[in-house]
What we know:
By secondary structure, the chain is of the alpha+beta class.
Amino acid sequence: MSTTGAHVPDDGAGGGAAAAIAVVLPRRPGVWWWPRRRGFVLDVALAAVSAIECAFEGATFADRTGIVTGAGALLGVLVGTVLVLRRRWPVAVVLVSIAMTPAQMGFLLSLVGLYTLASSEVPRRITAVLAGMNGLGTMIVAFLQFHDNLGDQDGGSSLRMPLTLVVAALMALGLTGPPVLLGLYVRARRRLVESLRERADGLERELELLAEKAAERAERARAEERTRIARDMHDVVAHRVSLMVVHAAALKAVALKDPQKASASAEMLGDMGRQALTELRQMLGVLRTAAAPVVVAPAMRADAVRVDIRPDTSQARQAGADPAGAPGPGADGPTLALLAALVEESQAAGMAVELTVEGSQRPCGARIEATVYRVVQEALTNVHKHAAGAKAVVRLAYREAEVAVLITNGPSDGSAQTALPSGGHGLLGMKERVTAHGGGFAAGPTSDGGFRVSAMVPLRGV
Length: 462
């Protein structure tokens, strides 16, 4: 039975570590079945030492048996060089050593062969059988030799037989057990290193998959954050700018006919611009970092570094009211209490808007109130854009488990409309806001040529 080059054992306890390093470092090409040149050099050196030893032992055996001394030495050289095949055919090397046991030849051959056999991928039952055969042969040869030596000295003592048996057994165990145990240890250690390497490779692959998934989640989070920021910017700015455009068109129409009314419209136009800037500043303040970046020069001392971590006070100053004195959204966003002011702004721009409230007013949560407020704001903005002169009705209902809002408008009266750009994201943004709270949203034309927008937001957890 033979082993392949893929199962070549490493010599010594450090063979597994060397194999682990060899996976990373480039290796020189091997020779025949040796994966590394140093293994080839080691086996050739061991075979040379074994050949010298076996040649000497073969010559000694030939003298005792009356064989030609040169033939015994030549046989010893041939037997000793078999050790060069230990990695390729460890079973054959052990069988040769067992066959040479009666000639008391191949001490190094037996030790190295048993170690190689135990450390290779040969099944353990075969290793146990060959080790047992080698130990039994060694024990028989040692018993016969010690028995003859003790028999010549004590002349047939009663302790000769048990003493000879014990000595022969200990000798056989000492020459067979250590190399086999060392080989089994190296084999187990190599398997452990291989399993750890496979586990490390598996963990590395898992980490790569986790990193890819984390990158995908981060990309999705960035996309969602960009969408949210775009939606907030749209809601914050579009309404104010739409009203400013409407007032600018009205100002142009009455500038020469009614200077007093034109002055009032210009003042209102400025107020709306400042309100738009205030809300935009608040939105950008959320995106700013809490502290400004600090650049430290190489020659600057550590105690000279000062970090400005003061918060953006502009947002705090504008949290309660805008420069014109009109109530503005707080730090947590607009509330339902500001709906009346929102309706008044549209009325000042010339829109006929009616606000009705059903149920008892109560706090509904900052995020829910901001969502309902933005829905009404965007709906009125769409009326300014697409149904100039139409009458709008805003109905707000406080219910036991939800808050609902309905915005309807009739058809346009055919008056001249100011061209206002539309990105087509208003209804989509309203739906995303409402469904994010688990609510329902619906929008569509009415039978009389108008349009309706309805939203329902549940009050779970409020």
